[in-house]
Amino acid sequence: MNQVEKMTDLMAKFVTWTAIKLPDDVIAKLNELREKEDSPMAKVIYDTMFRNQELAVKLNRPSCQDTGVLQFWVKCGTKFPLIDDLEALLKEAVIKSTFEAPLRHNSVETFDEFNTGKNVGKGTPTVWWDIVPHSDKCEIYTYMAGGGCTLPGQAMVLMPGEGYEGVTKFVLDRMTSYGLNACPPLLVGVGVATSVETAALLSKKALMRPIGSHNPNERAAKMEKLLEDGINAIGLGPQGMGGKYSVLGVNIENTARHPSAIGVAVNVGCWSHRRGHIIFDKDLNYEIKSHSGVNL
Amino acid sequence: MSVEIKDGKKILTTPISAEDLKDIKIGDIVYLSGSLTTCRDVAHRRVVEEGREIPVDVRNNAILHAGPIIRPLENDKFEMVSVGPTTSMRMEKFEYEFVKITGVRVIVGKGGMKENTERACKEFGAIHCVFPAGNAVVAAVEVEEIMKAEWRDLGMPETLWNCKVKEFGPLIVSIDAQGRNYFEEKKVEYNKKKDEQIAEISKQVGFIK
């Protein structure tokens, strides 16, 4: 097997595993929130969630039927030997995993409006590139973007007069209009930047950060905590049906902005937050950061 | 009578009548046995907008807003690998007419629905329930058999998969046959708390000075 085939095979297996089992940080947080809920309805819902995750592993099946559109955020060293082949092999890995797992066929060609039946299409899977100079490693975040939790996504540019108070209102309004149907407890990603696309991309990258991590900027970290406590206080609970906790966390990512604009975006991950994180060296030895105890 | 209590679970068995639903209230947890058919966006459009006859009889039975993962077996048989509800709100636009035309009694999905569905539930005697979403393997193992598959031209997620289910649930009643709406009532409460929180947080994020 050549190196391209080897990496394709490893990525297909990793994608399949992320469909079956949630990352360690998500499981730990769900356990914590489950213990803290006391209403009978919230308890029945959490019991179902945990029974489901156990059955998925036992029966070797995707834990949620909506295995999403696959999205990859790659931080690839310029000296990683497979850099030229990476985008094509990720597409191939999705096709392979779609057949093996099996994953749902979630790629509909726009305008022609037909399902490709392969779970890939024009521009899907999505691949975002960060090029890392002088490195021969390749770090890949995988994400299954389901329909339900993609729906609340929104970006806009606020006037500076609206300030961070405006950012607060933008995020919280989205929680009660769309968030409650997006399978809470949610992981909320917020991008604060200069224009819609910069903010939007950051809001997705924010969802790749581990639960419980904090923005290095002190004020941004304070705002993460304020938003987390605030959204919890709304009381969405599991499935938006009421409870003491609404979110797994709030992660903010930021850049500088134009003095006349505050770009802001919100993106949410559902409770079944299927994120993977894997790092390859130049010989394709790999380290999985998101899931412990996995051998592909 | 197709409502029974077994091991503390309230179980509805198809066929279900309007009478069977009259004591069921929003927030109740029930389970379903019998005929359940997946039915989502394009199938609703075909029935309501195109006026096509639905090829699976859902009268007095249940539908599920869902797009499952199916494994084809031999002899035109199928295995339910993974099935869970999808956002019901996408079907809201069609649901009044859909219930009127098809006579479906139990609609299972994810999240709330609105006035059209409330009106349908009240006028025709139906309920909307939520299956806790993201629990597709639990749901799949509660499907005993796929009886038939219709409108296969729509592809795997949109095909009408007619399933025989056993104690499918938990199903949390979100709209009852009186037309009360759990999510809409909760939303009033959520929005009030949201406004309080916006005011509270805004006091602490005046970073532009």
Task: Please explain how this structure is put together.
The complex is a heterodimer of chains A (296) and B (209). Chain A contains eight helices and eleven strands. Chain A is an alpha+beta fold. Chain A has two domains: 1-146 and 273-296, no CATH class; 148-269, no CATH class. In chain A, the strands form three sheets. A five-stranded mixed beta sheet of chain A has the order 4-1-5-10-11. Chain A has a four-stranded mixed beta sheet with strand order 6-9-7-8. Chain A is globular. Chain B is an alpha/beta fold and 209 residues long. Chain B has one domain (3-182): Fe-S hydro-lyase, tartrate dehydratase beta-type, catalytic domain (fumarase). In chain B, 27% of the residues lie in helices and 30% in strands. Chain B has five helices and ten strands. Chain B has helices spanning 41-48, 92-102, 115-124, 136-141, 182-202, and strands spanning 3-6, 9-13, 29-38, 62-64, 69-72, 78-82, 106-109, 127-130, 143-150, 160-175. Chain B has a five-stranded mixed beta barrel. The model of chain B has no long low-confidence stretch (mean pLDDT 95). At the A-B interface, helix 3, helix 6 and helix 8 of A face helix 4 and helix 5 of B.
The gist of it:
The complex is a heterodimer of chains A (296) and B (209). Chain A has helices at 3-20, 24-36, 40-59, 86-100, 147-150, 163-177, 196-206, 218-234, and strands at residues 69-77, 108-109, 114-115, 126-132, 138-145, 154-158, 186-193, 247-254, 262-269, 275-280, 286-288.
Topology:
The complex is a heterodimer of chains A (296) and B (209).
Chain A: H1 3-20, H2 24-36, H3 40-59, E1 69-77, H4 86-100, E2 108-109, E3 114-115, E4 126-132, E5 138-145, H5 147-150, E6 154-158, H6 163-177, E7 186-193, H7 196-206, H8 218-234, E8 247-254, E9 262-269, E10 275-280, E11 286-288
Parallel strand pairs in A: 1-4, 7-8
Antiparallel strand pairs in A: 1-5, 2-3, 5-10, 6-9, 7-9, 10-11
Helix pairs in contact in A: 1-4, 6-8
Chain B: E1 3-6, E2 9-13, E3 29-38, H1 41-48, E4 62-64, E5 69-72, E6 78-82, H2 92-102, E7 106-109, H3 115-124, E8 127-130, H4 136-141, E9 143-150, E10 160-175, H5 182-202
